[in-house]
Amino acid sequence: MSKKNIDWDEEFDLEEPKSDNKELLRFVGRILSNWYWFVLCGVIGLMIAFAYLRYTVPAYKIHAKLLVSDDKKGSGMLSSSALGDLSSLMGTKNSVDNEVEVLRTADLMREMVLAETAYIAYFKQGRVHDVPVMSTPFLVTLLSDPDSVAFGYSLDVNPVDENIAELSSPDTLFRVQWDEPFSLPLAGLLRIERIKMPPTKESYGFRITPVRDVVENFGEALTVEVTNKNVSTIDLTLEHKLPKRGEQMLTTLIDKYVELNLHDKNVIADSTLSFINARLSKITDELAGVEDRISGYKRQNQLADISQQGRVLIESSADYTQKLAEVETQLAAVDAVASYLKDTQHPRVVPSAVIPQDVGFNALIQRYNELVLQRERLLLANTEDNPLVQNITAQIAGVRQDMIANVASTRRQLELAKQSQQELANSVSSQITQVPTIERGYIDLARLQQIKQAQYIFLQEKWEETAIGRTANVSNSKVIDSPKAEKKPFSPRRKVIYAVFVFIGLAIPLAVFYLRDLLNVRVRSLEDIEKGTQLPVLGMVAHSDEEQQVVVSKTSRSAIAEQFRAMRTNLEFSLNGGKTILFTSSMSGEGKSYVALNLAVSLALLDKKVLLMELDLRKPSITAKLGLPAGKGFSHYIVRSEMQVDEIVMSSGVHENVDLVQAGAIPPNPAELLIHPRAAELMEALTQRYDYILMDAPPVGMVTDAQLLSRYADICLYLVRQGHTYKEQLRIPSNLVTQNKIKPIQLIINDIQARGGYYQNYGYGYGYGYGYGYGEYGNIRKSKWWNIRKRN
Question: In this structure, are residues 59 and 482 in contact, taking their beta carbons and an 8 Å threshold?
């Protein structure tokens, strides 16, 4: 037989499909198809929110504002006082940030808790929960130390008679007498005083809590912050379930803070006075001692005006130093002249006026220079042997000797002058070096006297100011907005609670859908197929509840019959003149035989001769589905060489143009039979007789029979069943194509169940929604919303 050569690279595009709005449409369709679950969960969320708000005790915010004197902002009440000046030395400057930290301290909160006995709270018993109240018909008093409460109790108080009250909790029940002390383990000694009889059908109780726990709870409920950095105000916010009680407790907290602030100021003032007194006594003694030392120092060094004496010595030293420098300059000049005169072979001009005070020597220099210049002019036109040149040279030598003698004499005189000036300069320098030592000693003593005197005056002034300020101490903070509770509770927020619970209710179905999709490992939608493989889809077959295997007939107008007709049309284009069709799948139960049988009938309706071959030699099923008796088949033909083709071809019984070749006896070696030479001869002979040959092969994911049969096929139709085929198995047909084991392959999606718009009408043009336009819907029906069954 001849097999059509198809350019599979053109038929099968390996590029990723372009993204469009299919995902959004599917998501919206899924929501719309399951709208009743969203409505139901949303209503349940509203009901839960209503119940939550109905039985939740509201909490209120109590606000207060303090104005604090902040030295950093120049508004300190003590900024110009002695205490303010001294506090800068002792690190006690007022600042808003410091006061914020003070207001947050647990010690301050503890003072408030003890003053308000906040460790004892009262409540009114309710049917669902207890409601906190400010006043009850009785009063509970803790007679022992509040710190002795190590264990919390919540007790209901029920009057028995005028003298007895019953205290109860889920695990405790005992009776006590009114106004009489009683002991609670790990809590201490208490007393209940009856104020009035409680109203009928109303029950109250009290709760006692360790002080440490109460302080921590109120510390978490209190917010202290500076909302505006440009001003020195502090905002306090306390969260409490009883607005009046919260106002009272915040007021007490502020009062305790003011008391603590005044106490701290008085302690600082007293400490300051003590410090000043001690320093005054010490500074007074030190100042007297320094003055005595200054007087003795002046007498010892005979000082009158030490500054004037120093100036005279410095001027003398400068004069001697200048003269000594002049002598040294003259010595340097004389040495330079001597170096000039040493060169007898080549006389040079000697600098003039190097020793201005020696007129004779300067005359010799002038004469010497004139002779040198005259000799050089003569040498321009004569040699050194010329008598005139020799005469000039002799005169130069004579003048040089005179000059050398004069230079030696002048140098001796300058050395004597230098020695004299050096001795005078050393004497003055010795006197000058003594003057700074005396003066420095005097200046040190004078400076120490000034320091001690300034300290004495400063401390004397501050003692007076501090003593006055001690009697007029005021707090550095002022309440500018007294504690007030908000009219509406901040918790729970009704709108937010309703919105949150409705959102949670709507999110639950989405989460369930997502988790089911996430945990699902089987193919459930065309989207799963598109993600798992890029092979083309030839057609789709809807779910059928009918027991009969053949659903296609001449008169059938059902949707599923139209789907097979659409598949037949697509198959004609895919075959491109071919005849042999191979059916396989990943595993058994995916509907290969069912689809092959109905597609064969659909092709036969075109007046074509169709042969259906039952080549699943391991587990044949077509014969049983058609209700035919088992006879000779493919395995018999291959094994028996004398058997003819007509002996194994039989009528299928479903259509006059559809014949059947049964599998025959199940052989021990089906793979070897499929590639037997007689199998190729059989296929060649059948191709000559029939227009279409449909081969029902075993699953390719289990055995290799389908791969062996692919050599006889023009196209392979791979069955994928919704809810049955695993997603991972979609890689099998793709791998077969890429590895050139089976080519070409197209998919058929079987057993599609329309589920309220989610799986129906994919819009790919395969015609599987065509049957809805007729009066007969076949077996594809939308499930009623009240029919609770497996969905999505």
Answer: no
Is the domain spanning 520-758 CATH 3.40.50.300? The answer is yes
> Are the C-beta atoms of 588 and 697 separated by less than 8 Å?
no
> Distance between CA atoms of 171 and 167, rounded to whole angstroms?
11
**Per-range mean pLDDT, top range of 290-304, 407-421, 476-490, 519-533:** 476-490
SS3 549: coil
Cα separations in angstroms, 46 against 50, 127, 206, 430? 6, 22, 34, 106
Q: How far apart are CA 593 and CA 541, in angstroms?
A: 13
- Output the CA–CA distances (angstroms, integers) from residue 529 to 221, 719, 758, in the order listed: 57, 12, 15
Domain with CATH 3.40.50.300 in the chain: 520-758
* Residue the block writes with tokens 């004037």: 308
Q: Which residues pair with 158 in a beta bridge?
A: 166
**Is residue 248 packed enough to be buried (19+ CB in 10 Å), middle (13-18) or exposed (0-12)?**
middle
The pLDDT confidence band at residue 314, using thresholds 50, 70 and 90, is: low
d(CA 619, CA 318): 132
Q: Which position has the token pair 């092709």?
A: 603
Burial class (CB in 10 A: 0-12, 13-18, 19+), 770: middle
pTM comes to 0.54
Question: Encoding tokens for residue 380?
Answer: 């321009």
Give the containing element (helix H, strand E) for 267: helix 243-301
According to DSSP, the β-strands at 692-696 and 610-614 are parallel
Place of tokens 């009850």: 136
What would the pLDDT profile of 401-448 be if each residue is shown by its tens digit?
A: 877 888 788 778 878 877 887 777 777 666 666 666 666 676 666 766
Which amino acid would we find at residue 439?
A: E
User: If DSSP codes are grouped into helix, strand and coil, which group holds residue 580?
Assistant: strand
Cα(334)–Cα(257) distance, integer angstroms: 93
Peptide bond into 198 cis (omega under 30): no
pLDDT in tens, 198-255: 666 788 999 999 999 999 999 999 999 998 888 889 999 999 999 999 999 999 999 9
